[in-house]
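Hi all, posting the design record for the shared folder.

TITLE: backbone redesign
STEP: 1 of 1
STRUCTURE INPUT:
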């Protein structure tokens, strides 16, 4: 990641909308101004890929690295075995150790695309290193005695779960996370933990544990939990989550996600998910009407560049331009293979079924509504209603592009 930001990084984070709560704003700003600060964020490897909802904390670490500080990405090989109850109404499904280790390796590689682990500007750690060897009785005696059950239950993450039941396993999560902060403080001089605002209670517990055990000061900072302008969870589409793994969400689809964001979200997303200069963000944010396409293109390109690299972003942009101008057969377009026999055996495939199957619509009802509005196409043919069928005649040289509205396209390739 290239580039360098001038000034105090706390001001950068605040100006770009990253700061929700801070344990001591003035002290944290002073620390950042006095020299390199070591700070960490934890990522539990509960899946083989992080998703767009994880970009806020990731970009927070990116800004620290660019400003010359020392970010730590903690990948929770230990806490991942427990499951964080924060923001969950039900207990997470427990993962097998083999699955967790596979996820750990994948997530660490993924974070390495955003942070410079190889060059030593940032580094990754695994809390299994110190959590798994713990002697339980010693841990309770040395660490557990510093925690008040009454105080733990006062935090929102636990209060919400108490209604449906909070397992003893999950109840220990806050203690383990606080212990992570203490270990990082003692080993690496880490003085700041950052995370989503649902982590506030866990973060404060860590600063308090450091004060009690080490007798030194540490700090916490949380980021806002983002929802889009229409109230949806950040990073969700009709197909589900927008993954950072290109095998799960292609670079083209990733680019398209940012191109298709609500106009109202563009100024905020430019600040949080790009590394464009402030003056350029201000110029793009002022655009309106048809000109907002320029702002969305800048958002999509830089967000894709940061995640997948310059070449992939350029290819995705080229593919989007080709599709928008009517050039359907572009390599970057998401593609699904369809068995030729499905068209013959049933005299075609119902369009509503296919649109749901490939993720252009979330449900058959949504597809029906789309068709009735005249916004669904199979190639150049407009799909009339829920009875519309896709047949072999719709394909040209074994390929067909399905469209939902003007912007979302998906190529179908016939296979024998």
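Okay, here is what came back for every position:
SEQUENCE:
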């Amino acid at each position: 990641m290239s580039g360098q930001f001038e000034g105090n990084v706390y001001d950068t984070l605040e100006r770009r909308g990253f700061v929700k709560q801070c344990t001591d704003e003035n002290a944290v700003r002073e620390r950042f101004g006095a020299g390199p600060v070591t700070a960490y964020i934890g990522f539990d490897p509960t899946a083989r890929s992080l998703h767009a909802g994880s970009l806020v904390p990731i970009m927070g670490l990116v800004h620290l690295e660019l400003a010359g500080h020392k970010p730590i990405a903690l990948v929770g090989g230990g806490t991942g075995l427990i499951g964080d109850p924060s923001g969950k109404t039900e207990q997470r499904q427990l993962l097998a150790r083999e699955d967790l280790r596979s996820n750990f390796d994948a997530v660490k590689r993924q974070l390495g695309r955003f942070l410079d682990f190889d060059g030593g500007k940032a580094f990754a750690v695994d809390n299994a290193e110190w959590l798994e060897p713990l002697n339980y009785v010693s841990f309770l005696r040395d660490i557990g005695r510093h925690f008040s059950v009454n105080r733990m239950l006062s935090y929102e993450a636990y209060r919400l779960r108490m209604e449906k039941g909070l397992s003893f396993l999950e109840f220990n999560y806050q203690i383990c996370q606080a212990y992570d902060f203490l270990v990082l403080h003692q080993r690496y001089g880490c003085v700041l933990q950052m995370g989503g605002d649902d982590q506030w209670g866990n973060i404060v517990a860590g600063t308090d544990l450091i004060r009690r055990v080490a007798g030194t000061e540490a700090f916490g900072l949380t980021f806002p939990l983002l929802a889009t302008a229409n109230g949806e969870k950040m990073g969700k589409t009709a197909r589900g989550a927008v993954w950072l793994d290109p095998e799960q969400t292609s670079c083209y689809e990733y680019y398209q996600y940012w191109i298709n964001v609500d106009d109202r979200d563009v100024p905020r997303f430019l600040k949080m998910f790009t590394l464009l200069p402030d003056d350029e963000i201000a110029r793009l944010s002022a655009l309106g009407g048809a000109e907002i396409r320029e702002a969305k293109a800048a958002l999509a390109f830089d967000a894709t560049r940061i995640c997948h690299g310059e070449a992939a972003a350029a290819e995705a942009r080229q593919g989007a331009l080709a599709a928008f101008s009517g050039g359907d057969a572009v390599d970057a377009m998401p593609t699904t293979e369809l068995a030729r026999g499905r068209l013959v055996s049933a005299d075609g495939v119902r369009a509503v079924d296919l649109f749901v199957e490939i993720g252009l619509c979330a449900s058959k009802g949504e597809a029906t509504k789309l068709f009735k509005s005249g916004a669904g196409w199979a190639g150049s043919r407009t799909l009339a209603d829920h009875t519309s069928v896709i047949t072999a005649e719709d394909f040209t040289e074994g390929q067909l592009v399905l469209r939902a509205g003007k912007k979302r396209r998906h190529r179908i390739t016939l296979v024998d």
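COMMENT: Residues 9-223 form a domain with the Rossmann fold fold (CATH 3.40.50.620).
Let me know if anyone wants the other runs.
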